[in-house]
Amino acid sequence: MKKYLDIKAGLLILACLFSGAAAAQSAADEIAKYRAMLADGNPAELVEAQGEILWATKRGPKNASLEQCDMGKGAGILKGAYAEMPRYFKDVDAVMDFESRLVHCMVSLQGFKPEDVIKKPFSSQGERATDLEALTAYGVAESRGMLINVPQNHAKEKAAFARGEKAFFFRGGPFDFNCASCHGSDEKRIRLQDLPNLLNGAQAQKAFATWPAYRVSQGAVRTMQWRLNDCFRQQRFPDLKYGSLTSVDLITFLGVMAKGGAMDAPALKR
């Protein structure tokens, strides 16, 4: 009798597991359908338009636009720039991602104070996109369809990659997490969200290529700097400073791992 009950209990457990897996897959499929339905009318387009206006508007103490900002392709050229960042910039002797370069241009060209620019880089739910979010959405849209090719030519670019890789595997916090805890192997999931393995080329390409993105659940465009900051929050790490060396290093690492993927951002996320 006991043997029969043990077998029955085992079958029930298996049934629950399969049922849960099927439900999770079904939910993931429905999320994918939802994204597809919205794809032709991505709300991020409104934020892109806001960013395009900001790019050409004369603002700040120097009453200047950002049209002379060099994102690595020459003054004012955005086409394909995001797909090749982070990269080394000789004028600052440092590697910068798109967002930290934006801050640099707003300070150097328009005369804003850096502490004012990054005081509130991310909008709260229901708020209008911040200038940095809007400008980043516009900038990344100008790389849509371009192949990711984050350079590794300069010694400082290589050093940024090495530090980013180290940061990706660094364990800490109250739960001894690191980036690889969620993104270092296949078939991981948090709630109903599939987690990409960022050490897998194809999955890294898809992940990197679709950020920044419009988060439907928050009604806002979220940038790569925001994505990393939120990952740090979930690991119970201290807040990641906007545009910090560690943030740029991690984006460098992720971008190099995603080499060859086609940019498709701003995309849609749950």
Question: How would you sum up this structure, described in words?
Answer:
- With 270 residues, the protein is mainly alpha-helical.
- The protein has a single domain (42-269), classed as Cytochrome c-like domain (Cytochrome Bc1 Complex, Chain D, domain 2, Orthogonal Bundle).
- The chain is 48% helix and 8% strand.
- It contains 10 helices and 7 strands.
- It has a 3-stranded mixed sheet with strand order 6-5-7. A two-stranded antiparallel sheet has the order 1-2.
- Helix 2 (44-56) crosses helix 5 (131-141), helix 3 crosses helix 5 (131-141) and helix 6 packs across helix 10.
- Mean pLDDT is 88; it is low at 1-18.
The chain-level structural class is mainly alpha
Average the pLDDT over all residues and give the rounded result: 88
Reported CATH architecture: Orthogonal Bundle
Number of helices: 10
Give a short synopsis of this structure.
With 270 residues, the chain is mainly α. It is built from 10 helices and 7 strands.
Key words describing this protein structure:
Cytochrome Bc1 Complex, Chain D, domain 2; 48% helix; 10 helices; three-stranded mixed sheet; 270 residues; mainly alpha
Helix-strand blueprint:
Elements: H1 2-38, H2 44-56, E1 87-89, E2 94-96, H3 98-108, H4 114-117, H5 131-141, H6 155-169, H7 179-183, E3 188-190, E4 193-195, H8 201-209, E5 213-215, E6 220-222, H9 224-234, H10 245-257, E7 267-269
Parallel strand pairs: 5-7
Antiparallel strand pairs: 1-2, 3-4, 5-6
Helix pairs in contact: 2-5, 3-5, 6-10
